Every structure is written in C-alpha cells, then in structure tokens.
Amino acid sequence: MDPQQYKTTKTRRGYTYSYYLSKSAEESKPFILFLHGFPSTSQDWAGQVSYFANKGYNIIAPDLLGYGKTSHPEDAKEYQLVDIAEDVIDILNNENVEKVILIGHDWGSMLSSRIVNLFPERLSAVAFLAVGYSPPQADYDYEKYMALTKGMVGYELFGYWEYFSSKDSAKKCEENIDSFYSLLFPADPTIWKTDLGPRGKIREWVENNKQGPLASYLSHEEKESHKKALLEGGLLGPCNWYAAKAGGLSNEAEARIPQERYAFSIPSFYGAALQDYICIAGINKMLMPRFASNLTIEDFNTSHWIMFEAGDQLNTALDKFITGLKQ
C-alpha cells in the first residue's frame, strides 16, 4: 500500500489517526472501510485494498489506536471499544463519508460490532472475519468467560488475554519478537489449542524464546515488513486492547447501549475460519443468527488469517456479497 496515500486526522478525543485513503473516479461507488485486528496494521488488508480499488471502490483503512503512526496512549482505559468506534466515525466525518461497507477482522470485528450498535445509520453492510459479531457485555467478567468457553470446547481459549493484559507482556514480546510471531502465525494452527489458549502457555512460549515453523502464507520478507510496521509504535498499545476488555474497563460504557440495538438488520457477512482454534467458527455460526437477521455465511478452510491464506476466495466472496446489496 502506497505510503503516499496515507492521511492523518485528529479525533475529538485528541488522538491522531493515520489511515489509507483511495478515492475512485466513479462517484457512485461506495466506500469500503477496513478495520484490522491484533497484531496487525492496515497493511494486512493490502490484498483486499488492491482488489476492490481496481474495481472502482473507495477505500479507507486506518491504523487503529496503538498501531503504526496512529497515537499510542499508554493508559488501557483509552482503548474501550465504544470510544474507538467514535474515533472511527471521526475519520469518516473528516472525509465527508456518510455511509460505508464495513469489514473487520479479529479485534476489528469486535470494533465493528460496536459501530453496528452505536452508528447503524453509517453502514450499508458489515462483514466480520474469523471473529463474529459480539453484542455489548455490560457485565463482562474474564474468569467467568474463561470457564464458560472452556465448558463449550473442552480447553481454555483466552489465557493469552491475561498475558497481554499484564504489565510486562509488551516488552517481553518485543524482546522475543520472532518467538511471538511463530506462535501468532504458526505453520500448524492446532498449537493455538495447546500454547495460546491455555492460561500461562503463551508466557512460557515467549519468555523461553521458543520458536516453531512459520506459516507458509507469510514469507520471510512479508514477516519482516509486518514486524517493522507493528514495532513502529511498540506492542503496549496493541496489548491495551486486551487489558481494556479483560479488566472490565469497557463494562460501564457498554451498559449504556440500549438492548434494542443489540440485534440488527444491516446486511451482514460472516467469514468462518474453520481451522481457527480460538475464535471457534461453530460458536460464531450458532450465535450470529440470533442477532443478525440478514446474514450471509461463507466457510474458509483456513486458520485465523483468512486474508493471508485464502485471499482470492475472500475477495470473491466479499465481492459477491457487496454486489448483491441494494445500492
């Protein structure tokens, strides 16, 4: 993605956001807004940005709070999804964009969920990749959630949240960055069941500098480019997304979202990653129809990283979904 096509804006909260902008010569074409997850930047969307820009769509892809050239506040309370959703709307307002097709992955899907709840009038459609729609959780309790999800799948899913929420995790991951990458982008996705989800396992992996084979979808050059972009602002900001949620810092703000906004009729898409052993496709496919009344589901025989492993299939599926919308 061309660095010359990045812009910056300051949000009402006073934070500077960097975002990629590509405008179409076809004024009638809609805007697509891409929201990345962890540990990523807007660069993760390069394959989708190229595909849809070539088809004449307008594109916005920000580096979210804590990433890239966007502000990196150190206080975890600044990373509440409700507040970041408002930041994203400030970007749209800066570009005088009224409506978008929203596409999120991982934490970008969680953030997309809050935009659905708070700003449905700004969305023509929404797509969730790997991580499905998540309704507001005013009474979120990390320990209860750990027990609940373990009961559903038979192993702990979110032990790594506890680690990323700890004070020393960002520094330790930076010091052992290749170990970190080999666990987050592994050749064998099943190791997430044994070395990412269970409590304490990621600390053991990273702090012993353990390294395994890297997934083939990420070349050495791509890994180094990804790593450079991620480390530009350090890992404290990215880890703060976990600290805000796991620490219950978002509960009060989410309690203010009216329950009638939990369900939605906006055309929606869920891309299910069938080999994602943390963000379980089956659970998302079971829960999403309870909230999304106009839902399209597409299966991808990939790990968590759909856009890397099955970029062409993803582009085709999203293209079909988007062209099927009533413009």
UniProtKB/TrEMBL annotation:
The keyword Hydrolase applies. It comes from the Eukaryota. It comes from Crucibulum laeve. The keyword Hydrolase applies. It holds the Pfam family Abhydrolase_1. Keywords: Hydrolase. This is Alpha/Beta hydrolase protein. Residues 31-149 form the AB hydrolase-1 domain. Belongs to the AB hydrolase superfamily. Epoxide hydrolase family. GO terms for molecular function: hydrolase activity.
